[in-house]
Amino acid sequence: MDIYTKTGDRGKTSLYDSTRLFKDDIRVESYGTIDELISFIGLAKNYVSDEETYKILEDIQNKLFTVTTNLATKEKSKIKFFIEEEDVEKLEKIVDIYMGKLKSPTGFIIPGTNRKSAYIHVARTICRRGERRIITLAKNEEVDPLLVKYVNRLSDALYAIGRFLEEDEIKVSY
């Protein structure tokens, strides 16, 4: 199977529904940023030692493919899978579990006292950028509000996991 099609050589790409857009279109930018997030979470997983967190991150990666599919499809009737309220609630439970494991988390910390927490915090910032791109898209086109809600809650979950994985809590001093 050839992975090069040469159809993008003039700066355009095809969405899942065959719509052609320029590669710098906000829709392409939004699902491309989520794709970057999926990959970075994959990198972060390699440094997580506990099976539960690894599985959570893998489940998030899988769910993010639903996000990218929705973002990469203009024709809504061609979307087969959707983010549901239960997906958001699952992330909220993850936040509650990981924040509950911390000893009185208050204030800002310097992220990255080890590789596993550092990679999770970078994933969190990519997630926030993805959220901003999706919001920009939603200003111009119809976007499922649950996508925005899911990605917003995901950044909270990544923060909670990253903070839990810190070996030390180095408080920010202004």
Computed over alpha carbons, the radius of gyration is 17 Å
In CATH, the topology of the domain at 23-70 and 104-165 is named Hypothetical Protein Ta1238, Chain: A
* Shape by Cα distribution: elongated
Q: What value does the average pLDDT take?
A: 90
CATH class term of the domain at 23-70 and 104-165: Mainly Alpha
Find the structural class using helix and strand composition.
Answer: mainly alpha
Number of helices: 5
Largest sheet: number of strands, sense, barrel closure: 2 strands, antiparallel
- What is the helix content? 55-70%
Strand arrangement within the widest β-sheet reads 1-2
C-alpha termini separation: 55 Å
Ranges where pLDDT stays below 50 over 5 or more residues in a row are: none
> Please, what is the CATH homologous superfamily of the domain at 23-70 and 104-165?
Cobalamin adenosyltransferase-like
For the secondary structure, the number of strands is 2
CATH architectural name of the domain at 23-70 and 104-165: Up-down Bundle
Proportion of β residues?
A: under 5%
How are helices and strands ordered from N to C? EEHHHHH
Describe the structure in your own words:
There is one protein chain. The chain is mainly α. The protein has a domain at 23-70 and 104-165: Cobalamin adenosyltransferase-like (Hypothetical Protein Ta1238, Chain: A), CATH 1.20.1200. Helices cover 60% and strands 3% of the residues. It is built from 5 helices and 2 strands, in the order ββααααα. The protein has helices at 26-45, 51-71, 85-100, 115-140, 145-165, and strands at residues 12-14, 20-22. It has a two-stranded antiparallel ribbon with strand order 1-2. A hairpin with a 5-residue loop joins β1 and β2 (20-22). α1 (26-45) runs antiparallel to α2, α1 packs antiparallel against α4 and α4 (115-140) runs antiparallel to α5 (145-165). The chain is elongated, with a radius of gyration of 17 Å. The termini are far apart.
